[in-house]
Amino acid sequence: RRAGRGTLPQGTPGGEAAVFARAGLAGPRRLVVPGGQVLERTADDVVAGVFSMSFSAPHLFGTRLDAFEADVRRLLRKASPSDLFSERQPATEVFVWRRDPH
Questions:
Q1: Is residue 3 part of a domain?
Q2: SS3 content of the chain, % helix, strand, coil (to 5)
Q3: What GO biological process terms does the UniProt entry carry, in alphabetical order (predicted)?
Q4: How many domains, the chain?
Q5: Which domain holds residue 40?
Q6: Quick check: is 77 in a domain?
Q7: 7 belongs to a structural domain
């Protein structure tokens, strides 16, 4: 299955904890990496970020890819003629599973 090719109306399947436990792993230990850092981005960075998302991957646009990218770039130029954008990084959650020592 390739991202962007279908829908999961009920969300992704659950039960990950049971799968990890059966594999002999203990956890999870939840770690939060704080966000808040501000990164400077160019229009190229923003466009690359858009195309990196499964819901807006380039193959989904077919023959309209160039037109879509042109529209995005036009909107970005209108928003920031300097071609610079700021993006505040969100916090990141990490779930760590380890081999159960027992």
A1: no
A2: 40, 25, 35
A3: methylation
A4: 1
A5: 17-99
A6: yes
A7: no
Q: CA neighbours within 13 Å on the CB side: how many for 50?
A: 18
Local structure of 40: helix, strand or coil: strand
Task: Give the integer Cα–Cα distance in Å for 86 and 69.
Answer: 20
Q: Which two tokens stand for residue 22?
A: 């059966």
**Cβ count near 28 (within 10 Å):** 15
- Give the model confidence (pLDDT) of 35-49 as tens digits: 999 999 999 999 999
Determine the residue type at 56: S
Task: For residues 34 and 88, give the distance between their C-alpha atoms in angstroms, rounded to a whole number.
Answer: 11
Whole-model pTM over 0.70: no
Q: Which residues contact 91 (CB under 8 A, 6 or more apart)?
A: 32, 33, 34, 35, 36
DSSP 96: E
Q: Distances from the Cα of 87 to the Cαs of 41, 68, 71, in angstroms? A: 7, 22, 20
